[in-house]
Amino acid sequence: MSDCLFCKIAAKEIPSTMVYEDELVYCFKDIAPIAPVHYLVIPKEHIACAGEITAENSSVVSHIFEVIAKIAKDEGIDNGFRVITNCGEDAGQTVHHLHFHLLAGVKMGWGVDAVKPE
Ligand code: 5GP
Ligand code: ZN
Fold first, then answer.
1. What letter would DSSP give residue 40?
2. Residue 117 CB neighbours (<10 A)
3. What are phi and psi of 38, to 5 degrees?
4. What is the pTM of this model?
5. What average pLDDT score do residues 42-67 get?
6. Catalytic residue among 63, 96, 99, 101
7. Contact at 8 Å (CB) between 44 and 12?
8. What's the CA angle centered on 15, arms 14 and 19, to 5 degrees?
């Protein structure tokens, strides 16, 4: 998609700090990290969010999880990590290209911080 930020990042039209790349997947550092390790793993193919995964495009998702396991090993993430994908407004998705946040390097809490209604 021509106006998609992460399509442009995957195509190297917008710079990013690369962590891993292959023909299907790109992984780069989040510009505003919320943990000592905060990477984003994206398919190079444009998929809007997890709600758009189908039998036709889902193989890249299993590949992404193989890549995440490899990155964790290669980067020495040996005390655990968390993978998050936000889909849609209630989840707070801000970039509408499927991405998996890989978070590590800190003991994490668990929960949903509900945004107060205006
Ligand atoms: P979301 O809120 O959609 O789940 O996550 C989008 C993520 O993309 C955020 O964590 C945000 O910091 C990150 N992000 C937004 N724009 C850029 C950018 O231009 N470069 C990089 N590296 N990360 C970005
Ligand atoms: Zn895109």
1. E
2. 4
3. -145, 95
4. 0.96
5. 98
6. 99
7. no
8. 125
